[in-house]
Design goal:
By secondary structure, this protein is α/β, with parallel strands linked by helices. It contains 11 helices and 9 strands. α2 links the parallel β1 and β2. Bound molecules: N-carbamoyl-L-aspartate.
């Protein structure tokens, strides 16, 4: 792996901090790792001397397995931490927990946490490289990177392309990170959903707002469909899930009326029959499983570029 280019940041806390050149560097590196992942031996020695701890304070399937696989494919030593089985439940603070782990000579921390800003707090207080794997409703930078990478793979350069982000924009860290990443890559972004699930300030990020799903799909080259985040909703934002599905759900009949193919994406987990029907999620228009596949290569790229010893690899 050639190592002349570097990221402008020592951590990956959010897409907000990345330059378009950083994003390009991550994509170029991910292309090389994707090639490694298609070999019979899917492993490189790049992070052989690096120890990484995965700190997950929130449920996760894809992101957690994807980071762990990425770390193992890079030959890092990996430690997994699950909040429910830890001393956090005995009242220990986040900083104390992490400092104790770090005193066992850990180099990098991958963290998912329910509090927005938790990754940034660690980066300020802790001597280790921090990768944000999702901080509450704030950012989920590796998801946005793998989404944009998967879009480029499917439709080429995103410059001027129309990307719709549909659903629960208000509670979604994927939405914010996607908007920041896609606009940095020159795409035109539109958010679409019920008015109650779209923050009033969202236009300040340079995106269009629509409450009309048919019009949005007609406009879009790609639609990234988000899950209704019921676990974050403290009040009723729409009358019922059935009604949401009726007005904003993506189904085959709706797509067929468009007379063109929109690329369908979803970060998962999918609520089949709510934001997307099975015949759309499993169709040839959908690149949902390619997103998951690309996630490993993107996370390998991020870890490789941020690792303290990457320059010697
Ligand atoms: C997302 C997340 O956790 O923010 N999922 C993921 O990381 N693949 C989206 C979601 O939970 O809906």
């Amino acid at each position: 792996m050639s190592e002349s280019r570097k990221l402008s940041q020592p951590h990956l806390l959010g897409i907000r901090d990345l330059t378009p050149e950083d994003i390009r560097l991550i994509f170029d590196t991910a292309v090389q790792f994707k090639e490694v992942l298609n070999r019979p031996i899917k492993k490189v020695p790049s992070l052989r001397d690096t120890t990484i701890v995965n700190l997950f304070f929130e449920n996760s399937t894809r992101t957690r397995i994807s980071f762990e696989l990425a770390e193992k494919r890079l030959s890092a030593d990996v430690v997994n931490f699950s909040a429910s089985a830890s001393s956090v439940s005995k009242g220990e603070t986040l900083i104390d927990t992490v400092n104790n782990i770090l005193s066992m000579k850990v180099d990098m921390v991958v963290m998912r946490h329910p509090a927005p800003g938790a990754a940034e707090l660690l980066a300020r207080k802790i001597k280790a490289t921090i990768v944000n794997a999702g901080d509450g409703t704030h950012e989920h930078p590796t998801q946005a990177l793998l989404d944009a990478f998967s879009m480029e793979e499917k439709i080429g350069s995103l410059e001027g392309k129309h990307i719709a982000i549909v659903g629960d924009i208000l509670h979604s860290r994927v939405a914010l990170s996607n908007i920041l990443c896609l606009t940095k890559l020159g795409a035109k972004v539109r958010v679409c959903g019920p008015p109650t699930l779209i923050p009033k300030w969202i236009h300040t990020l340079g995106v269009e707002v629509s409450y009309d799903i048919r019009d949005t799909l007609e406009w879009a080259d790609v639609a990234n469909i988000l899950r209704i985040q019921l676990e974050r909703q403290d009040t009723r934002y729409f009358p019922s899930l059935r009604e949401y599905a009726l007005y904003f759900g993506i189904n085959r009949a709706l797509l067929e009326e468009l007379g063109k193919d929109v690329v369908i994406m979803h970060p998962g987990p999918i609520n089949r029959g709510v934001e997307i029907t099975s015949d759309v999620a499993d169709s040839s228009q959908s690149i949902i499983l390619q997103q998951v596949e690309n996630g490993v290569a993107i996370r390998m790229a991020v870890l490789y570029l941020l690792a303290p010893r990457a320059t010697n690899a």
